[in-house]
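ARCHIVE CARD
Drawer: 12
Card no.: 0347
Subject: one protein chain, sequence and derived structure
Cross-reference: see card 0346
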Amino acid sequence: MKESIRLPTTLGGLRASRWGQPELRERSVRGEVRANLLAALGRRERLFPGIEGYDDTVVPQIVNALLARQAFILLGLRGQAKSRILRELVRFLDPEIPIVAGSEVNDNPFAPISKYARELIAELGDETPIGWLPREARFVEKLATPDVTIADLIGDLDPIKAARGGHLLSDELTMHFGLLPRANRGIFGINELPDLSAKIQVGLFNVMQEGDVQIKGYPVRLRLDVLLTFTANPEDYTARGKIVTPLKDRIGAEIPTHYPKAVEVGIGITEQEAWVDRPGSPVAVPEFIREVVERVAFEARTDRRIDRRSGVSQRLPISAMENLVSNAERRGWLLGESTPFVARVSDLYAALPAITGKLELEYEGELQGGEAIAKELIRRAANRTFLGRAADFDPEPIEGIVAWFDGGQALKISGEERSEIAVKAFGLIPGLVTVAQAIASGGETDAGTTVAACELVLEALAAQKRISRSDEIGWSALRPTRGEKRREFDD
């Protein structure tokens, strides 16, 4: 029999159960989170599963704030898992807690805050019905926008309730509770805090500190038990006039988040989040292609033509990876290639819409255009991936590749070409296939992976400005000679 079946259903039964013990009756939600967090630390559990790259930076600071029973704010650019972290906090709540049945504000049966619950307990005593609230229902989230009102967050007077119940408008029973009171005994998260108007921010810190608020001139005392959490962009949070100083002062900890500091961490996040394993259409993504995709975001975050205040979201490599896989999937089905279909660098060029849409450009970048910058980022990412794998290689074969182009040759291969034909085309360039196979696996490999590695080598040489690359000519000498001979392998 499940434990939930034996949970008390009346206040009398609750008093006689373990929930009637003083340490549970009087424990606040912050104390509850603290106790469960300490237990998780004692069991050496991973506190935020699915959150990568924060184990030594952000997570310890969050733990410190929770152990100190403080409200905290996560400061970071877009795509840094801030909202996801807030949602993960429910792991540190009890599986369920008792409430007065029918209460809109999750009243603690031993310390009710609403007039409804107090009157019900006074009338029924130990027969007061008890409900149980699961931990998943104890997290309330709100995206801050300038049009959010006190009624949305705190509540408003409801004339219909007053008329039906025969109450004065000043009576608490006429109040329609907002999101914050409904989050009582839980966690309340506000995303993009600086977007709240100053009036709403004042209402928040009144509730946080004094536990009261005025609604249309009537003072309402709300002794809420809520763990408040926030997120914000650091540029907005520090801008003059965006945050009411008393509210900023009442937030216990300001915790900065960040993008992955190592490419390997970013690859792990993208692999975790991107929809790559698709039923019925197996697509293999070589490890070096995964690295190229991730390095596009790393290169973008340091490019002066891209607005660093907006940041480059981790959603960029995730979306790019999904589009890259889709292009490989589309090509594989159209050409009838054997499975698994292998993703290439050219598939990343086909994923440009997933990249350009996530870049906020500075003035110089706007002049050049998002597509041109995205293509350059791909070449730079390919070059860094190549250099990391070719550091110990004999440079002679690579010089031979460059010499072939310098001799007046050019090569253009369609991104829609079959792998077997593409390998033959790349085989015209002395040493290219050998270098590519060494890059891919240190030895011979399948045709699809060989094509992907050959493209990587040529993209890297183009980024190094040792050869040229264009959509019209393909790969050629850096300065094409008159009478240059071009080899085409288009469909």
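Annotation on reverse: The longest helix spans residues 315-335. The chain has a mean pLDDT of 88.
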